[in-house]
Design brief:
- The structure is a single chain.
- By secondary structure, this protein is mostly helical.
- It is 84% helix and 0% strand.
- The chain is globular and about 55 Å long.
């Protein structure tokens, strides 16, 4: 029992450090929440969590290791994921300008369904997630770890994703943050768009 508890604590501590690191997920949440689309940001959080859980389950069952050895599949997913991030980046760059020209006073509010889809695609389209989980479980979760402990770790992965990105969604959609966003919307959108496109270009460049 003590060994299982140590494994659980170590694994979740490592994963928490990874989740807190800024990346395309946090950038997407920032854009959705600050623009007033809190339901979409929360739905994207659920999408991230589902995607991470899928990779975690694949890694625990050994299927992820098989996937990583299919070179063309990993390359395809990574390039497709990079293209999607670039698409999101370009959308951020031009959406606010388009709304301004149309005379709309507020940016487009993304639906919860689209937010979930965006979060799920961003999470699953990064094959580094598979590589991370394979390495993560190989190092932090020994093969002999009890099934109940693996289930707790799996639940912890889901909870950490929801808590962190959920908290960010609420914080970034508060009135003070919204006020700053509305004042500098076009520049914030372009900065976020540049980051998303940059993440996408980096994914693609690694496979070209």
């Amino acid at each position: 029992m003590p060994q299982e508890l140590t494994t659980i604590f170590t694994a979740l501590a490592i994963y928490a450090a990874v989740v807190l690191r800024p990346g395309p997920n946090f950038t997407l949440i920032t854009r959705l929440a600050a623009s007033g689309a809190r339901p979409a940001a929360l739905a994207a959080t659920l999408g991230f969590s589902v995607g991470a859980t899928v990779y975690a389950v694949l890694s625990m069952t050994g299927l992820a290791l098989i996937i990583t050895r299919v070179g063309w599949l990993v390359t395809f997913v990574q390039i497709a994921g990079g293209c999607y991030l670039i698409y999101l980046g370009l959308s951020a760059w031009f959406s606010h300008t388009a709304k301004t020209l149309d005379g709309a006073g507020s940016p487009h509010i993304t639906s919860a369904a689209r937010g979930f889809r965006m979060g799920l695609i961003v999470e699953l389209s990064n094959p580094k997630g598979i590589v991370f989980f394979v390495s993560f479980f190989a190092v932090a979760v020994p093969m002999e770890t009890a099934l109940w402990a693996k289930a707790v770790i799996l639940a912890g992965v889901l909870i950490l994703e929801i808590v962190w990105y959920g908290a960010a969604s609420f914080l970034l959609s508060t009135r003070p943050v919204r006020a700053v966003y509305e004042r500098f919307a076009i520049w914030i959108e372009r900065a976020i768009g540049t980051l998303l496109a940059g993440f996408g270009l980096r994914l693609i460049s690694e496979k070209i």
